[in-house]
Amino acid sequence: MEMKREVNEAMQPRNGADLFVQSLVDAGVDTLFGYPGGSVLPIYDALYRNNASFKHILSRHEQGSIHAAEGYARVTGKPGVVLATSGPGATNLITGIADAIMDSIPLVIFTGQVAHQVIGTDAFQESDIMGVTTPITKYNYQVEKLSELPRVINEAFHIANSGRPGPVLIDIPKNISEEISGEVYDNSFNLPGYQPTTKPNPLQIVKLSEALSRAKKPIVLTGAGTQFAGASEELFEFIQKYELPITSTLHGLGTYPGTDELFIGMAGMHGTYAANMALHDCDLLINIGARFDDRLTGKLDHFAPKAKVAHIDIDPAEIGKNIHTEIPVVSDAKEALKALLNSDIKQPEHKEWMEEVRKNKEDYPLWYNRSDEAISPQWLVEQVYELSEGKAIVTTDVGQHQMWAAQFYKFDKPNRWVTSGGLGTMGFGFPAAVGAQLGAPNDLVVSIVGDAGFQMTLHELSIIHERNLPVKIVIVNNAALGMVRQWQESFYEERYSESILQTNPDFVKLAESYGVKGMKIDSEKDVPNALKEAFSYDGPVLIDARVVQKESVYPMIAPGKGHHEMLGVTKS
Q1: Is the model's pLDDT at 3 over the cut of 90?
Q2: Is the pLDDT of residue 58 over 70?
């Protein structure tokens, strides 16, 4: 594939840092998340001198930068862009890079590097970021010559956001940033070895169409790949046309309306009874854009044991990796759904199946017990949903609050749910909300976080104060590492080893010290008014919500169990 841009013929002498800034402008970047340091000082000087047309967001820690970039990418569909210095600046990005590769988030990451002549000498703030990040990036580069810098940057943006999205890293030695040249460098590229398959094989579509026509117990599983392909409309039309029950992975939430009667809830470890039993009993499973991870499948021997499996995915490496697949369809989800909608599919005869699925959905809903002593966390999430009218962009960390948000906030649209899935990163939710708010400045962004995870990146409160970003932070405060505590209760005979937080800060005073409005609520009667006040406030707000400490997330598939062996299932 070859891509070019027009270049100005009469160029004044510029250094590599100036070319860097111009390359970001050419790539359409509007937001850069970063933190300065020695190896990138020429770039920061160029940002100052060139009065760049894009915003620079100064985080208070590089991990805040990269999680913010992830949040931005998730809601905009554009690559998040990050800049950090060499050594500790670069290594502080590692968690976010690993998070992005697991969850297929497009990022273009720039790290400074010591000058070429001292690479390999253990120079001050030198680290082998290429070696460190090779396993956790889609691709990485170290710039060898100034002339290749514009091409490498242009190429990186293409790789990050095409095929299966992911993070791409560019390491820029300081001497490249400082080198001066009056040459005009072309940024065109040609990648004959990188040609993702985006259109399905027609024969596989025929096989899938025939399988659906014959199916008595079909089900569709949607994942994040449906969102990345912009295929929600085609998915809705497909489901409605053939009246198919549909479930979702954690990251697939919102790709199909969560309030629609055919949606039977999230599947997996903390999925609904209806969804998990449908996966267990189906005779045809159509997976669209999900990767069959262990939190979805449970024990592989028990996963969809009676089903013929069709898997639509743009990444051929995912097909057949964990689950035997009879009908592999390597394709962009949108193109595959278009092909299915244009196929000659006989309406499946599955009336009895639909009645069974609907009955399970009605008889075994998600449930919880209200508390008289503190706030029920599930009810808190329901209140966030109702008072935001289901229109908020919601970000989370990982753990109990994440699962409650996934269960009780009904997502009707894509690009509204921002969470850490594969890596399960504490500290992700709040900085991701910063990026989401910058990417969607007119939307309500609610960051539902745990008291433990929030403390890992709370210093980014500085950003929302400085820029008056109206992020609403709801701390689900149970004074514990909630999911760790639950597992210790369930599987370690209540030995709560280092999972109860003996000391938490006064989160209200903490917020106020950063210039952010803080509120504390410890009774359910105070929740509605507090949320209404926060959502209507023109600026950032932190709510410290004191919830039941020993509340657990149910239903649950215990380790080593199958979908039909769920714990905590209660009939209505």
Answers
A1: no
A2: yes
